[in-house]
Automatic annotation (TrEMBL):
<dbReference type="Pfam" id="PF02771">
    <property type="entry name" value="Acyl-CoA_dh_N"/>
</dbReference>
<dbReference type="InterPro" id="IPR006091">
    <property type="entry name" value="Acyl-CoA_Oxase/DH_mid-dom"/>
</dbReference>
<dbReference type="InterPro" id="IPR009100">
    <property type="entry name" value="AcylCoA_DH/oxidase_NM_dom_sf"/>
</dbReference>
<dbReference type="InterPro" id="IPR009075">
    <property type="entry name" value="AcylCo_DH/oxidase_C"/>
</dbReference>
<keyword id="KW-0560">Oxidoreductase</keyword>
<protein>
    <submittedName>
        <fullName>Alkylation response protein AidB-like acyl-CoA dehydrogenase</fullName>
    </submittedName>
</protein>
<feature type="domain" description="Acyl-CoA dehydrogenase/oxidase N-terminal">
    <location>
        <begin position="15"/>
        <end position="112"/>
    </location>
</feature>
<dbReference type="Pfam" id="PF02770">
    <property type="entry name" value="Acyl-CoA_dh_M"/>
</dbReference>
<feature type="domain" description="Acyl-CoA oxidase/dehydrogenase middle">
    <location>
        <begin position="116"/>
        <end position="210"/>
    </location>
</feature>
<dbReference type="InterPro" id="IPR013786">
    <property type="entry name" value="AcylCoA_DH/ox_N"/>
</dbReference>
<dbReference type="InterPro" id="IPR046373">
    <property type="entry name" value="Acyl-CoA_Oxase/DH_mid-dom_sf"/>
</dbReference>
<dbReference type="Pfam" id="PF00441">
    <property type="entry name" value="Acyl-CoA_dh_1"/>
</dbReference>
<comment type="similarity">
    <text>Belongs to the acyl-CoA dehydrogenase family.</text>
</comment>
<dbReference type="InterPro" id="IPR037069">
    <property type="entry name" value="AcylCoA_DH/ox_N_sf"/>
</dbReference>
<keyword id="KW-0274">FAD</keyword>
<dbReference type="GO" id="GO:0005886">
    <property type="term" value="C:plasma membrane"/>
</dbReference>
<dbReference type="GO" id="GO:0050660">
    <property type="term" value="F:flavin adenine dinucleotide binding"/>
</dbReference>
């Protein structure tokens, strides 16, 4: 570590210590504490001054969070607002006006306003540019009509990031615009989609004459594809590149089951567990390297590879856990239809983990589409034939 880096770490620790001395985490009001932390630049330390940060390297965020956790400080309920924190916030920072940043970033970080994502449609999932939801300009507002689907947390969201077609007369990738949609306005109808697990964390959302002020358009009119691509890059990093300890997450659950079930062990199961343990550790270290790269710039297509690995390992590990448990793995604790705010793999039973992991290769970009991204943009392999006769394939990839 250089002298400058040492001084930066020391200054950051001093800032946190001074903040905690002025705001007792054990007696302060939770929301007031979080708002003050944002104002002090100790929310997203890599964000600019005035927007919850100090303009420091992104790699320092983990150190700051650990210092607050050790002090018993309240958190901003990261799991309940993952879409807002991992997708909406960096997109607003990159493409938003100063007024939009001032309005949306602080209540997003404190958790006062939860966000969801209105991208996928019944006829436009992996092929996002095929979306049919329309937004028509009416003075200083846009009138939106259409249907979105697989919307995580829409039942508890205050705002949504929304992509809609604003120009049907140009090639499909160029006719999209990106909006920040208030989920409480008239015309927004959220309906639950019950899943294989019995729960309904996903929803379908019907938009009928929903009015969105032009001031809540993010980026230029027709720039929606570019803005959405940035959002999806952040999403894949958030899903597949999150920090975790050795033997954390699903591999930790399966390793614990192995240790608790010695009578079910076989050489074949042992070999599979060791192989998956090594792959999970490689993925963890690769994620750490990816986060170091992110500290130097914006996320790239490498996040797609991490998300691919996350989905595959979760599915293979959850299947191995069921085999280790034998007949006990067939039990399912609760089929009650609930609409959860948080999805937690590690605190549920094995049957839930096995069923829920099936969605990992669909949500956040299907594994098939992500393999194409990795092949073309990371490995440099030849692209598939262009799918839009009016637009050269190289243009679609931008």
């Amino acid at each position: 570590m250089t002298a400058d880096e040492t001084a930066m770490h020391a200054d950051l620790r001093r800032r946190v210590a001074d903040f905690l001395a002025a705001h007792d985490p054990l007696t302060s009001d939770r929301l007031e504490f979080l708002r003050a932390r944002y104002d002090a630049g100790l929310a997203w330390v890599s964000f600019p001054d005035g927007h919850g940060g100090l303009g420091l390297p992104r790699a320092l965020q983990l150190e700051v969070d650990q210092l607050f956790d050790e002090a018993g400080a309240p958190d901003n309920n990261r799991l309940a607002n993952g879409i807002g924190l991992g997708m909406a916030a960096p997109t607003i920072l990159a493409f938003g006006t100063e007024k939009q940043k001032q309005r949306f970033l602080k209540p997003l970080w404190t958790g006062e306003e939860v966000w969801c994502q209105l991208f996928s449609e019944p006829g436009a999932g992996s092929d996002l540019a095929a979306m049919a939801t329309r937004a028509v300009r009416d003075g200083d507002e846009w009138v939106v009509n259409g249907q979105k689907v697989w919307t995580t947390g829409a039942h508890s969201a205050r705002f949504a990031i929304l992509v809609a077609r604003t120009n049907p007369d140009v090639p499909k990738h160029r006719g999209l615009s990106y909006f920040l949609c208030d989920m409480t306005v008239p015309g927004v109808d959220v309906r639950p989609l019950r899943q294989l697990t019995g729960e309904a964390e996903f929803n379908e959302v019907f938009l009928t004459d929903v009015r969105i002020p032009d001031a809540q358009r993010l980026g230029a009119e027709g720039q929606g594809w570019e803005v959405a691509t940035a959002t999806l890059n952040n999403e894949r990093v958030a899903i597949g590149g999150s920090a975790g300890p050795r033997e954390g997450g699903m591999v930790g659950v399966v390793a614990r089951t192995w240790r608790e079930q010695p009578h079910r062990r076989t050489p074949e199961l042992h070999d599979r567990l060791l192989r998956l343990w090594v792959e999970a550790e490689v993925a963890r270290l690769t994620g750490a390297r990816l986060r170091q790269k992110l500290a130097l710039g914006q996320p790239g297509p490498e996040g797609s590879a991490m998300k691919l690995t996350f989905a595959r390992l979760n599915q293979q590990l959850s299947g191995l856990e069921l085999e280790l448990l034998g007949e006990d793995g067939l039990r399912y604790s609760d089929w009650t239809m609930v609409r959860p705010e948080v999805v937690d793999f590690t605190e549920r039973d094995a049957g839930y983990r096995y069923l829920r992991a099936k969605g990992n290769s669909i949500e956040g970009g299907t594994s098939e589409i992500l393999r194409n991204i990795v092949a073309e943009r990371v490995l440099g392999l030849p692209a598939e034939p262009r799918v839009d006769k009016d637009v050269p394939w190289k243009e679609l990839r931008k």
